TrEMBL record:
PANTHER family: L-SERYL-TRNA(SEC) KINASE. It comes from Otolemur garnettii (Small-eared galago). This is Phosphoseryl-tRNA kinase. One of its GO terms (molecular function) is L-seryl-tRNA(Sec) kinase activity. Pfam families: KTI12. NCBIfam families: selen_PSTK_euk. Coiled coil: none annotated. Keywords: ATP-binding, Nucleotide-binding. One of its GO terms (biological process) is selenocysteine incorporation.
């Protein structure tokens, strides 16, 4: 017995159309052939529900651009779409965790009780096509799946997405730490002009402005600042790093799993840096603007002064709770992950704010009619 199976998660990040998916497929093929590893490439674009994306394409052009930017987490619109997108990303991480638990424990994998059916099916198809699982036909429920891979072979999961915010990658690192897996990052550094040109040739192209915004906001791996990002490699695309350089990085990840620190000192330090006074100030300023804009819209709707006072109290109370939540470590509204960036906070706030406005509008319409303007 050679001990526990070697497992690693590799985050592949970069701008849309940087060549990540092509690179991931070629890398997976080479590692299977040359190293004899089991490799799973999980492309987020392939697994995220088509229905959610199709909703965007059915909208008028102006709305569609706003939808696609909000789905990328770049703006905080008046609806819950970025919130939905974030929840789907976290749900996909939960699927990966179910798969990893089955690998680690050598058991069958059952579907999560709460799941987005279309996304779960696409995730299962992704694993089946790479010979990582197959249906357990002998079971009463054919939805149960059993591992197919040779347990003596290392298993590498390559997660292919933009991962342009540090916090998105940190979620994957947390998963690696939870199960003592290897962790590494490959950043495809592709010129903006090349990405825009490739994107324009795609059947479902993103708006060019979205890629411009992502390029301005992208947070490249920073090993000097973040100890957890030390196992990272930047690849100039389209000219790639040597195969040996990439393979060495992956070997290091497999041989040196992330150790779970009981007292979570590293996590606390990361949280402290990200939820700094500067960030709190920025969030406070932005939330003030959101509340102010919402109140202006309510006044434009001719809402009576008494009701305006009530709405203002509710929104300011929500703002205060959000800021306190951010200070105290995300226990109530921001409980989906340990650390989050400003765009995420604004998206969550808009989601909660819209619920207050909706409730307010429903109560107002049921209790009184607006006075007619003569």
């Amino acid at each position: 017995d050679e001990g526990p199976r070697k497992l690693a998660l590799c985050v592949l990040c970069g701008l849309p159309a940087a060549g990540k998916s092509t690179f991931a497929r070629a890398l997976g093929h080479r590692l299977r052939q040359e190293q004899g590893w089991a490799v799973g490439v999980v492309a987020y674009d392939d697994v995220m529900p088509d229905a959610f994306l199709d909703e965007a394409s059915a909208r008028p052009p102006e709305q569609r651009r706003e939808f696609e930017k909000s789905a990328a987490g770049l703006i905080g619109p008046q609806n819950s779409e970025p919130f939905q997108w974030k929840v789907l990303r976290l749900e996909l991480l939960k699927y990966l965790e179910y798969f990893l638990m089955a690998v680690i424990n050598g058991c069958q994998m059952s579907p999560p009780p709460n799941r987005t059916e279309a996304m779960w099916e696409d995730f299962i198809t992704c694993l089946k096509e790479q010979d990582l699982i197959f249906s357990a036909e002998s079971e009463a429920q054919s939805s149960y799946l059993i591992m197919k891979t040779d347990v003596s072979r290392p298993l590498l999961l390559i997660l292919d997405d933009n991962f342009y915010y540090q916090s998105m990658r940190y979620e994957v690192y947390q998963l690696a730490r939870k199960y003592s897996l290897g962790f590494c990052q490959l950043f495809l550094d592709c010129p903006l002009e090349t990405c825009l040109q490739r994107n324009g040739q795609r059947p479902r192209a993103l708006p060019a402005e979205t890629i411009h915004m992502m390029q301005r906001k992208i947070e490249k791996p920073n090993p000097e600042k973040n100890a957890w990002e030390h196992n990272s490699l930047t690849i100039q695309s389209p000219a790639c790093a040597s195969d040996l350089e990439v393979t060495d990085l992956l070997h290091i990840a497999l041989e040196n799993p992330v150790k779970y620190v009981e007292d979570n000192m590293e996590q606390k330090e990361t949280d402290r840096l990200i939820c700094s006074t500067n960030m709190l100030h920025q969030v406070d300023q932005t939330l003030r603007k959101v509340v102010s804009q919402t109140m202006k819209e309510a006044k434009d709707e001719q809402v009576p002064p008494y009701n305006l006072k009530f709405l203002a109290e509710e929104l300011n109370k929500l703002k205060t709770e959000f800021l306190e939540d951010l200070r105290q470590g995300n226990k109530k509204y921001l409980c989906f992950q340990q650390i989050i960036d400003i765009a995420d906070v604004i998206s969550f706030f808009n989601y909660e704010k819209d619920k207050i406005v909706l409730k307010f509008n429903n109560e107002e319409s049921s209790s009184m009619k607006k006075p007619s303007l003569m």
